[in-house]
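Example for tutorial group B:
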């Protein structure tokens, strides 16, 4: 019984290591978050207002 548990643990460790290698290379998209200049809270870039203090974010003009 103990041999079966140790081999099962080893199998889960190997699978977990492989999954972490694959997912380790994935990174979130750059610029997906921003920090509020007023309170310092991290807010999604898609929001126009800070979730904590309600400070509005200025939209920057894109230069092409």
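The residue assignment follows.
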């Amino acid at each position: 019984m103990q041999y079966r548990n140790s081999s099962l643990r080893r199998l889960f460790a190997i699978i977990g290591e492989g999954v972490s290698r694959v997912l380790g290379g994935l990174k979130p998209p750059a610029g997906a978050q921003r920090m509020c200049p007023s309170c310092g809270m991290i807010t999604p870039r898609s929001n126009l207002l800070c979730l904590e203090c309600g400070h509005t974010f200025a939209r920057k003009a894109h230069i092409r």
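Strands lie at 33-35, 42-44. Compare this with the pattern of hydrophobic and polar residues in the output above.
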